[in-house]
Specification:
Shape: globular
Number of strands: 8
Number of helices: 9
Radius of gyration: 19 Å
Strand order of the largest sheet: 5-2-1-6-7-8
Oligomer: single chain
Order of helices and strands: EHEEEHEHEHHEHHEHH
Strand content: 5-15%
Largest sheet: 6 strands, parallel
Length: about 230
């Protein structure tokens, strides 16, 4: 039986957890995912324990079934390799800070000239615009800024670090969902789309019940005293 995304090619520039989780979801649905990595260390997730016979199981969990290609985009010949791949691709997903892909000659404007039907997803902490767009962050940072940590814990008020990186993984689902929507739009229009996914924005959306309470009553949610806790 064929899978829904068979015939769809993804060029994956992401690393660590959020982006690779998103492209893993696409891979699970049959997409051909080509992971573009630096020639040196590659995806940092390759070094994350636990490892068995030199292989990181954390890396495998979000990169199984993908192809891998080492390309140095800082070199002209490396960019030429990318430019030969783009016309045959359907999706590009990148997870650098805003401006990095432009400096590498691999931004949406450049690549969409080579393939007007390309769906280009930029996946970052705070999105491509706004005052925080250049600020680095981590799953825990986004959860704190979104208020998730403020309602996670006991009545003593001390926040508890969740055992699951919720912001990272939820934004992975958000990115995969958004790309599928862009594919559907392309089916109708014949044109590609630019998708801007913010991990912080996704984390805020997870606060739906807590925001409902605040917007309806003006009461600020307190750890241990919310509808669920």
């Amino acid at each position: 039986m064929s899978l829904p995304l068979e015939g769809i090619t993804v060029l994956d520039f992401t690393r660590l957890l959020p982006g690779p989780f998103a492209t893993q979801l696409l891979c699970n649905l049959g997409a051909d995912v080509i992971k573009i990595e630096d020639p040196g260390i590659g995806d940092y997730m390759r070094t994350v324990p636990p490892t068995l016979q030199g292989v990181s199981y954390a890396y495998i969990m979000v990169n199984r079934g993908k192809k891998s290609l080492a390309v140095d985009l800082k070199r002209k010949d490396g960019r030429e390799i990318l430019y030969r791949l783009v016309p045959k691709a359907d999706i590009v997903m990148e997870q650098f800070r805003p401006g990095v892909m432009e400096r590498l000659g691999a931004d949406h404007k450049t690549l969409s000239r080579l393939n007007p039907k390309l769906i280009y997803c930029s996946f970052s902490g705070y999105g491509q615009t706004g005052p925080l767009k250049d600020v680095p962050g981590h799953d825990l940072t986004f959860e704190a800024h979104a208020g998730i940590l403020g309602v996670t814990g006991g009545r003593d008020g001390r926040p508890v670090i969740p055992g699951v990186p919720m912001a990272d993984l939820a934004s992975g689902y958000n990115a995969a969902f958004s790309v599928l929507v862009a594919l559907r739009t392309r089916d109708r229009t014949g044109r590609g789309e630019f998708v801007d996914v913010s991990i912080f924005d996704t984390a805020v959306s997870l606060m739906v019940l807590n925001l409902a309470r605040y917007l309806a009553t003006g009461e600020e949610p307190v750890a241990g005293e919310t509808l669920l806790t």
